[in-house]
Amino acid sequence: MIYRRKPLTIEAMQYIPDTLVDLAKLTEFIGEGYLRMNFKDGTYPTLIIKEKDAAMEVQPGEYVVKTDKGIYAVSKDAFEKVYEPINENETTDEPEETKEDEA
After folding, report:
1. pTM across the whole model
2. Which of 19-23, 61-65, 85-89, 91-95 has the highest mean pLDDT?
């Protein structure tokens, strides 16, 4: 048998450490999690996000994905293979009905 991934709408934000405004937006996006930065490589900081009992590192360029099951870091390549942007007013996981369906 062949399977297709069910449609899923998520919230995500890419971590690009260019300005403090970007970091503030990401902090607001994460919400109740604990966020700290690690400058171990001397260039761009790695984010450490602590949620419940786990902590994860987010490298510059990776996406932070928020679902009903938690917050996850996803590499840019993997994210762009699976997800595509949608309009802000498209928030449903169900396909839109066409005018023919309504008739």
Report:
1. 0.70
2. 61-65
Q: Identify which of 12-21, 52-61, 72-81 has the greatest average pLDDT.
A: 72-81
Closest to 82 in 3D by CA, of 72, 90, 96: 72
What is the Cα–Cα distance from 92 to 7, expressed in whole angstroms? Answer: 9
Decide if 29 contacts 64 (C-beta within 8 A). Answer: yes
Q: Which of 26, 22, 32, 33 is nearest to 12 (CA)?
A: 26
In sequence order, which residues have a C-beta less than 8 Å from that of residue 44 and are 6 or more positions away?
17, 60
Instruction: Render 22-80 in DSSP notation, one character per residue.
Output: HHHHHHHHHTTSEEEEE-TTSSSPEEEEEETTEEEEE-TTPEEEEETTEEEEE-HHHHH
